[in-house]
């Protein structure tokens, strides 16, 4: 009888892309996630690819009734999932995603409007989880940035989150391993058109 093969732990990349982005365009006509970066990628595609390069699987959470965003991501081969109550706050999208990727050993929670995070930074966070961290954050010059990594230990707490602060309450309440990185991208989100260039 052959021994059972051990399953490799899966670390899932979760990309939160269900926000309205009102600061970028108060009229709502331009979706900041679909704007082009200097390299030719859209904001959301670059953010998703950075996750894809470092994690085992990527799930992009999108708002309901946004066929353009959904079609764009699916055309690039990314798995998307609509969060029907995304408008209630970031926590709703996060809970929705963790439910979809419940099997994972850990999750890298990234933001769709942060396209400049290096895959090596994400990989460093996964390494921290593999080595026993329950929460890991990237740090540059003493300041914490995004994305944030959570181990399976925090699954139940992640699924109970509410409101618009995401998982900050968990980061504040539990031990966090800070992972030093030389990556300015951990601070660089796209809030205005000028943010499209580094």
What does this structure look like?
By secondary structure, this protein is of the alpha/beta class. It has helices spanning 43-52, 67-75, 90-100, 119-130, 155-159, 168-173, and strands spanning 11-16, 57-62, 79-82, 106-111, 135-140, 143-144, 148-151, 177-180. The chain is globular, with a radius of gyration of 16 Å. The model is unreliable at 1-6 (pLDDT under 50).
Q: What attributes characterize this protein structure?
A:
198 residues; alpha/beta; Spore Coat Polysaccharide Biosynthesis Protein SpsA, Chain A; eight-stranded mixed beta sheet
Q: What does this entry show, briefly?
A:
This protein has helices at residues 43-52, 67-75, 90-100, 119-130, 155-159, 168-173; strands at residues 11-16, 57-62, 79-82, 106-111, 135-140, 143-144, 148-151, 177-180. It is an alpha/beta fold and 198 residues long. It starts with 10 loop residues before the first strand and ends in an 18-residue tail after the last strand.
Any idea what the radius of gyration is?
16 Å
Determine the mean pLDDT.
91
Q: pLDDT under 50 segments (min length 5)? A: 1-6
Looking at the structure, the CATH topology is Spore Coat Polysaccharide Biosynthesis Protein SpsA, Chain A
CATH class group: Alpha Beta
Largest sheet: 8 strands, mixed
* Name given to the CATH architecture: Alpha-Beta Complex
Number of domains: 1
Tally of extended strands?
Answer: 8
CATH superfamily: Spore Coat Polysaccharide Biosynthesis Protein SpsA, Chain A
